[in-house]
Specification:
By secondary structure, the chain is mostly beta strands. About 15% of the residues lie in helices and about 45% in strands. It folds into two domains: about 160 residues, Chitobiase, domain 2 (2-Layer Sandwich), CATH 3.30.379; about 240 residues, TolB, C-terminal domain (Neuraminidase, 6 Propeller), CATH 2.120.10.30. The protein has five helices and 30 strands. It has an eight-stranded mixed sheet with strand order 1-2-10-7-8-6-4-5, with helices on both faces. A four-stranded antiparallel sheet has the order 11-30-29-28.
Length: about 400
């Protein structure tokens, strides 16, 4: 990685407090100044935790890319499984003793935040979560951009420290999408492993009623499925249905007005809709649409459904599945999977089989395309998505698991 811009830290000693945090008062003894970059040369490398979630590793890569845009000095990269070096930029909670102390101090903040610190000859950036690490790296980049672009060296006092203040908070998905910045969907935690059940070996559609998750397992031999009911509080399986004649069972939503799961049924040329009692997990009704659909989400505040129809279209219907409006996704590519609509945006899962990569396209309910989020880190076919609060949950075939994910900025 190139890093002409690490000259930021000469500026960081200029003031004791800023509008968004606090800098440590320099000791006044400049004999211990550290040079991290000079004359297009640097001994430093970026180090991430080997067990870091994908957001931290992706942010570290993007941080290096941003520095590289202006730089002419290459900085290496490593994980904390490698031997410790003398000159390191430590990002996140590494196993280095300097990071251990940093994260003890971050915990002592008693709130969300981040700290940027010089310790010995190492630069540390850490935060209470992946978004706070993003903000810490962004702080470094912003100071570079404003005050130190184009300078030839980086010299800073060995006792430098910056602590964010209490005003910083994680943005909502809506704020991330509307910001205009590139965004990504980062899986941050595996919350549930799902076991195959006999010949029911293919994970397919899923959804939630807010208290339970429901995941379908397909038996490809006879095109039937079982639905697994999972308690969101404990992530324990509480019930498994008997085999259901729901075919591929590509997506599941919940209609609280009916008190039923509403399921994409691939029978009748993918025009089928099954109604499932969430308590007994038995089919209580069946409807044949005038159009085939690959995904479904119920919008409670308007009593509508949005269907993924044809290949890349969305059709809004009333509660009886009468079509009302239709538009095409702004990014019509890759294999379409399940979708979720929160009443403002449609989040549509896409799978690219050529390299086992996954994406989420985002369109609003009026048909405006807002962007496509990459889903880095997991090489398996994403099948469905649902949202609870600011958390998203994505299920993967092959990986046979549900992951909690955050929609966050992908760059600065």
């Amino acid at each position: 990685m190139k890093i002409r811009s690490l000259i930021v830290f000469a500026a960081l000693v200029a003031s004791v407090a800023t509008a968004s945090g606090f800098e440590k008062e320099p000791s006044g003894n400049r004999s211990g100044d550290i040079t991290i970059f000079k004359d297009s040369s640097s001994p430093y490398e970026i180090v991430c935790p080997v067990e870091a979630n994908v957001a931290i590793t992706e942010y570290a890569k993007e941080f290096g890319t941003k520095l590289e845009e202006d730089g002419d000095c290459i900085i290496g990269s490593a994980s904390d499984s490698d031997d410790a070096g003398e000159y390191e930029i430590l990002i996140g909670k590494t196993n280095r003793k300097e990071s251990v102390k940093l994260y003890e101090d971050i915990k002592d903040l008693g709130r969300k935040g981040y700290i940027v610190r010089i310790c010995g000859k190492k630069l540390l950036v850490g935060g209470t979560d992946e978004y706070m690490v993003y903000c810490g790296l962004g702080y470094v980049l912003e100071r570079i951009k404003k005050e130190y672009s184009g300078k030839a060296s980086l010299v800073f006092p060995a006792d430098f420290e910056y602590v964010s203040d209490s005003k910083i908070s994680e943005p909502t998905p809506e704020e991330v999408i509307s910001s205009g910045k590139r965004f990504a969907m980062y899986p941050v935690e595996k919350v549930k492993a799902i076991s195959r059940i006999g010949n029911f070996k293919v994970l397919q559609g899923g959804g939630t009623d807010g208290k339970y998750a429901y995941e379908a397992l397909l038996n490809k031999k006879n095109n039937t499925a079982v639905i697994v009911k999972i308690d969101l509080a404990t992530w324990k399986t509480v019930k498994v249905s008997q085999p259901l004649n729901t075919g591929h069972t590509n997506d599941i939503t919940f209609n609280p007005k009916l008190g039923r799961l509403v399921v994409n049924n691939s029978n009748d040329s993918w025009c089928g809709i099954s109604f499932i009692d969430p308590e007994t997990l038995t089919e209580t009704g069946y409807h044949v649409n005038a159009m085939s659909s690959r995904g479904i989400s119920y919008i409670e505040k308007t009593n509508q459904y949005v269907l993924g129809v044809m290949k890349y279209d969305y059709c809004f219907t009333d509660s009886k599945f009468n079509p009302q409006k239709q538009f095409t996704d702004g990014n019509p590519q890759y294999v379409t999977q399940g979708l979720f609509c929160d009443g403002t945006y449609i989040y549509d899962v896409r799978y690219k089989p050529e390299d086992d990569s996954n994406y989420i396209t985002v369109n609003d309910i009026d048909g405006k395309y807002w962007g496509t989020a990459t889903i880095p880190g997991i090489k398996a076919e994403a099948e469905n998505i649902f949202r609870i609060g600011n958390d998203f949950y994505i299920s993967y075939n092959k990986a046979f698991a549900i992951f909690r994910a955050h929609l966050l900025p992908a760059s600065w």
